Structure formats: structure tokens, C-alpha cells
Amino acid sequence: MTVTQMLQPRAGLRVLVTGGASGIGLVIARAFADAGARVHVCDASRETIDALATVEANRGASGGESGGKSGNAGAITATLADVSDRDAVERVFADVHAQLGGLDVLVNNAGIAGPTGGVDQIDPDEWDNTIDVNLNAQFYFARRAVPLLRDAPDGGAIIALSSVAGRLGYAYRTPYSATKWAIVGLTKSLAIELGPAGIRVNTIQPGIVKGPRIERVIAARAQQLGLSYDEMEKQYLEKISLRRMTTPEEVAATALFLCSPGGSGISGQAISVCGNVEVL
């Protein structure tokens, strides 16, 4: 195998992406599908699930790579599920068994922005919800995925999505930042625990990623600080060494690399894909 060949994931990988019907998760799911993987996603939004199903059906009808059939290489199937609901997680894995017959890669991507406000202003229920979706769900999916990943022919992989807020302090976003730091601890602990079974565990820490979600975050932060949206966006960009936002495709490319033969020696790492965010 050449070095160039080592940069491509093995065709036919069985991949589960949580929160995979929109945003970064969808870009990751499609990247794996385009690389020949069999991909299943879950998402809490019926609207995004239905939109994904329509796109997949159209791809199949036009003779696209997916073929439009569940279980074919390149196809993306989906389950409607709230990742913080343990019963829903069980339904996801029932569908994974039915659609994929096993698992090689878990991408723990699902997450929410959580509330914006001073610590004395945050509603405890919003704190609890952020913990449930961003952190507890990662545990729920990992505990169900690991028995399947142990049987992966080339060794399984878990990729957890954290954030640069998991290596930097983030004022007025304490629930979000706390969960993203915790994900790094979970990742490093699982890498030690699961390494002897050949399962690699890494986390990707995206920075300020282009898209509707960061636009909402900037707007909320601007309102909190009494600034205009443009002023707040300028402040965000000035904190990035490259002075630009990261793209979802750059995050997805890193996920693919971590699941390729070229990434087979990488485990227990928190990899920032952020243009070097210096401070939040």
C-alpha cells in the first residue's frame, strides 16, 4: 500500500454519525458515504431526517453512487432520535444492526450550543439539557458501540466532536465549554481503556465553523455584550491566527483521515481544526 493509498478509508466501513442529518454531522456522513462507507445517522429533527431521505432517494433515482437502497455502499440511512434519551439510543442501535449488521466507526457528533449568559443568569434546566445532549449522549453511544467495535475487522474507531471551547475558557458559554472539556477527558480515558482491543479513540476540536449555527452563536453573544453582529464577528475572526472560519469539509476530512490506514497509529488525541483559535 502506498502512502497515498493510506490516506483513504477502507471501502465498506460501517459508520454511525450522531446528529448526522444536518450541519457538520451531515458533511461528515456524506464524506464517508462518498468514500464508499455504509453510513447510518440519527438526528432529533424530523425535518432534517425527511430532507436527507429525499436527497438520498433523488440520488438513487438519478443513478448516483448511493443507489438509494439501505445497506448499499454510499447510502445514508437514518433514525429519528433524541440522543439524550436512552430508549432512543437503543432504537438507533437496533437500526444499526438492521441496516449495517455491525459497526466500524462511531462519530459522536450530536451537540447543542446551550445557553448564553453569565453563570448567575443561566437556567439550571438549560444547564442540565446541555450536559445531557453534549456529554451524557456521548457515553450512551460509546457504551453501546464498543461491543460492536471490538468485532471490527481492522479495529474500531470512535471520533468524538469536542470544540476549541474544550481547550480554552469561554465566558458566557460555561455549560457548552464544560461539556467540551469533559469530552476530551472521556476520549483520553477511553483510548487507554480500549486500546488493547484495537479500538482507537480521538476527538476533533472544530473552531469557528462557517454555517447557520455560528451565526446564531455570534448573534447571541453580540446581544449579551451590547454589540452589533458585524462587530462581534470581527472580534471572533481577530482571535483566529488564519483570520478565517473553518469549513465543515475541513472537519470531515480530518474524520476520514483518522479512519484511514494513515491514521491507524493515532489514538487518545484532541486535534484542533480551527485555524489556531488563540482565545475565545
The figure for the number of domains is: 1
CATH topology group: Rossmann fold
Give the structural class: alpha/beta
Q: What is the total tally of β strands?
A: 7
- Which spans have pLDDT < 50 for at least 5 consecutive residues? 65-72
Mean of all residue-level pLDDT scores: 93
Multimeric state: single chain
CATH architecture: 3-Layer(aba) Sandwich
| Widest sheet: strand ordering | 3-2-1-4-5-6-7
- CATH top level? Alpha Beta
SSE pattern: EHEHEHEHEHEHHHE
Protein name: NAD(P)-dependent dehydrogenase, short-chain alcohol dehydrogenase family
GO molecular function, one term: oxidoreductase activity, acting on the CH-OH group of donors, NAD or NADP as acceptor
Family: Belongs to the short-chain dehydrogenases/reductases (SDR) family.
Essential attributes:
280 residues; alpha/beta; 7-stranded parallel β-sheet; NAD(P)-bd_dom_sf; 45% helix; globular; NAD(P)-dependent dehydrogenase, short-chain alcohol dehydrogenase family; oxidoreductase activity, acting on the CH-OH group of donors, NAD or NADP as acceptor; 8 helices; Rossmann fold
Structure at a glance:
With 280 residues, this protein is of the alpha/beta class. Helix content is 45%, strand content 13%.
Describe the structure.
This protein has a single domain, classed as 3-Layer(aba) Sandwich (Rossmann fold), CATH 3.40.50. 45% of the residues lie in helices and 13% in strands. The protein has helices at residues 23-34, 46-61, 86-100, 124-149, 174-194, 212-225, 229-238, 248-258; strands at 14-18, 38-43, 76-80, 105-108, 157-161, 200-206, 270-273. Strands 3-2-1-4-5-6-7 form a 7-stranded parallel β-sheet, sandwiched between helices. Helix 6 crosses helix 7 (229-238). The longest helix has 26 residues, at 124-149. InterPro entries: NAD(P)-bd_dom_sf (IPR036291), Sc_DH/Rdtase_CS (IPR020904), SDR_fam (IPR002347).
